[in-house]
Design brief:
about 160 residues; mainly alpha; 9 helices
Length: about 160
């Protein structure tokens, strides 16, 4: 195998660029989900927490790099973002946020039926049906974007050290 062939074999296809109509449809879905979440009363801060938690589970560096500053812009704190992966072990998140995070995790890992039932039951205690639907759609959408970025190996552009 020549260097050129080896380079080509190891290089990923940016599927968002390769199939722009499909990607635009996904962006359109995300836009509709954002509207549905707002209409259901899910504020942008909680949407960003869900985006970040799902991206942590999936190991999507690109989405984490996009949604961390977005969360900070809407007022999230560095302390809460720093402990988000261990949200169950803190008192920093409200019952509503905890229910949404558990439901987002269950959406991300649906094969775990016990956790899914537990998360859904907890969500029913503090979230309306519109909110439950919105949380699940937010998680579904960020899961899709995670797959696009992970499989495309979208690079994370760093800020140079000072």
């Amino acid at each position: 195998m020549s260097d050129t062939t080896a380079d080509l074999a190891s290089r990923r296809v940016y599927i968002d660029k390769q199939s722009p109509k499909a990607y635009r449809a996904l962006v359109g879905t995300a836009d509709a989900v954002r509207v549905a979440a707002a209409e259901a009363g899910i504020d942008r801060g909680l949407v960003e927490l869900i985006n970040l938690r799902v991206s942590q589970i999936n190991g999507c560096a690109y989405c984490l790099s996009v949604h961390t500053p977005a969360a900070l812009r809407v007022g999230e704190t560095t302390q809460r973002l720093g402990v988000l992966a261990a949200w169950r072990d803190t008192e920093l998140f409200t019952a509503r946020e905890r229910a949404a995070l558990a439901l987002a995790e269950a959406t991300t890992e649906p094969a775990n039926a016990v956790d899914q039932e537990t998360a859904y039951a907890a969500a029913r205690q503090v979230l309306t049906e519109d909110e439950i639907s919105a949380v699940i759609w937010v998680a579904i959408t960020i899961n899709a974007f995670n797959r696009v970025s992970i499989l495309s190996k979208h690079p994370v552009r760093g800020i140079p050290p000072q």
